[in-house]
Amino acid sequence: MTDIPELTEKDFETAIPARVRRRLVQGKFESGADIAALRRFVRLTQEQFATAMGISVHTLRNWEQDRRRPEGPALALLRIAARHPRIIRENLQAAA
Length: 96
Hints:
CATH topology: 434 Repressor (Amino-terminal Domain)
Number of domains: 1
Strand content: under 5%
Number of strands: 0
CATH architecture: Orthogonal Bundle
Order of helices and strands: HHHHHHH
Largest sheet: none
Structural class: mainly alpha
CATH class: Mainly Alpha
Radius of gyration: 14 Å
């Protein structure tokens, strides 16, 4: 039988409810809080997430603080990040 690791406090802190994740996968980001939740779920800092996405930290902060909204290609990248979070982490490693 395979050992299943216990969920940690960090796992609970970064979890996204299934209904919210389904919405994010569809590209329906309702607020900056959704983008911040996705970033925390992938377990990256703002700097790391911005690098992995190929955007500036300033842009990411504007999104997370609801001063701007992602559109076009940025929205597509966020949808991919929600669907395949591992790819964002791999992209960060490739950018380094």
